[in-house]
Every structure is written in C-alpha cells, then in structure tokens.
C-alpha cells in the first residue's frame, strides 16, 4: 500500500501507564476497524474507552483525507504505545518518611490502511486418478521415539548424591559443617 492511503491518529498524555495501554492495543492490532471497535467495546479495561475514541478519530481522519475511502475495508495497520512523562508525587509514610508515587502517562498511536480488494481465486486443478494425499516420490516421515526404552531401563532406580543418600535436603557435598572446638 502506498503511504497516502494511511490515516493515523495520536492520543498524547493519556493518564495511564504504557503497560496497561499495551494490553488493550495488542488486542486490536491487525484487525478490521469494525472488529476492533467491537473488541474494545467488550474489553473490561478502563483504557479501552479512550483507545476506542482514538480509533473513531482515525476513521474520521481517513474519511477527511479521502472521500472515496471504504470504511469496511479499513484495518489497524500499526498500533503502538510509547511511554510519556511521569508526575512525581509523594505519599506520607510512617516515622516522617515519604514514599514516591509515579503517576505515569503514555502516548498511543494508531494508523489505518485499506485492505486491497480480494482478487478472484484461480480454480484448483484436479488430481490425477492414482495420486493420493502424499506425493509418490516422497519418503515416509521418520517415526517419533517415545522414550519407552529409557523408561524401562531406569524404572525404580534413583541416582544417589555425593553423600550416598537419596532425596534428603542438604545431604549433598555443599552442606555446612559444624566447627570443631
């Protein structure tokens, strides 16, 4: 697609962390606009409402840029979240101390593009009468080993540690020894 078909919208200084916004943006990346709006409508995250408004704005930008745009063919080409500035606040803590609270912000960018019209698919050729699902010249796939021989040989035997005991915590060579007086 050429760059003139892309419309984008940017939401700056959104009052949520980039990590929380990325959870929602990852849900709509690559989807059709109608499907993305439906996904956002039923997402139980507060930031989904803001991203839905941003997606509506991107669709309006596409209509403004090109009057002949087909909204049904629009899809979310790119969607990403960048970290923004953080407001630093303090919260009183015991014994005269103060804990720092970071009120994080982020910038969300969504770019839309139009999917190309689906071209007529060429009809598939019929198979020859004697041909089956696998090609005649192909070798058979190697069989997977199940590990049955290994299980049979090692049945019931356990490896002993350096101390000669099995399954005891601290029985290995790295244990602490008492000091002799």
Give structural notes.
It is a single chain. Helix 2 (33-41) packs antiparallel against helix 3 (47-65). The chain has a domain at 3-114: Ribosomal protein L22/L17 (Ribosomal Protein L22, Chain A). It has helices at 18-28, 33-41, 47-65, 148-153; strands at 7-14, 74-92, 98-114. A hairpin with a 5-residue loop joins strand 2 (74-92) and strand 3. The chain has 181 residues and is of the alpha+beta class.
Order of helices and strands: EHHHEEH
Count of alpha/pi helices: 4
Average the pLDDT over all residues and give the rounded result.
81
Please state roughly what percent of the residues sit in beta strands, choosing from under 5%, 5-15%, 15-25%, 25-35%, 35-45% or over 45%. 15-25%
Distance between the termini: 83 Å
Topology:
Blueprint (H helix, E strand, L loop, with lengths): L6 E8 L3 H11 L4 H9 L5 H19 L8 E19 L5 E17 L33 H6 L28
Antiparallel strand pairs: 1-3, 2-3
Helix pairs in contact: 2-3
């Amino acid at each position: 697609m050429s760059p003139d078909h892309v419309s984008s919208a940017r939401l700056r200084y959104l009052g949520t962390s980039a990590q929380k916004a990325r959870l929602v943006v990852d849900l709509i990346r690559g989807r059709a606009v109608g499907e993305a709006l439906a996904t956002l409508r039923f997402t139980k995250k507060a930031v989904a409402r803001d991203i839905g408004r941003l997606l509506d704005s991107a669709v309006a930008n596409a209509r403004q840029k090109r009057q002949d745009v087909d909204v049904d063919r629009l899809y979310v080409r790119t969607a990403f979240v960048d970290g923004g500035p953080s407001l630093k606040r303090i919260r009183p803590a015991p014994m005269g101390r103060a804990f720092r609270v970071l009120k994080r912000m982020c910038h969300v960018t969504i770019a839309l593009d139009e999917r190309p019209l689906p071209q007529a698919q060429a009809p598939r050729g019929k198979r020859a009468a004697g041909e089956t699902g696998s090609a005649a010249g192909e070798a058979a796939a190697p069989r997977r080993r199940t590990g049955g021989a290994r299980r049979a040989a090692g049945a019931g035997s356990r490896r002993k540690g350096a101390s000669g005991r099995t399954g005891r915590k601290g029985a290995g060579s790295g244990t602490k020894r008492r000091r002799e007086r």
